[in-house]
Amino acid sequence: MLRNCGSQQRFDYYCDAVTPGYQGRQLVCIERTIDFVDSREYFGVQSADIVAYLHRRLNGTTGSSKQTQRACQRVYKVLESSIVSARKWRP
């Protein structure tokens, strides 16, 4: 149903309805209007992009080289104590 929708339409839908899955729930804490910005212009967004990139490189299926994996691990280790939780939401 939502495969051809953009991110904003999906957020709106999940705020009004419920997320899919065994224990679906409404996303009541999500700000309805999400502005997608260029991370080069916003330090906080750029920081979040870096953490998400490193997390994905270390936990995803990117097939990176051992050297790249070690470099990502070194940087991620510095940030790891600041990360409260890391889980993937699949709408």
From TrEMBL:
Top-rank taxon, per record: Bacteria
Database matches in InterPro entries: DUF3800 (IPR024524)
Pfam annotation, one family: DUF3800
Name of the protein this chain belongs to: DUF3800 domain-containing protein
Organism: Mobiluncus mulieris
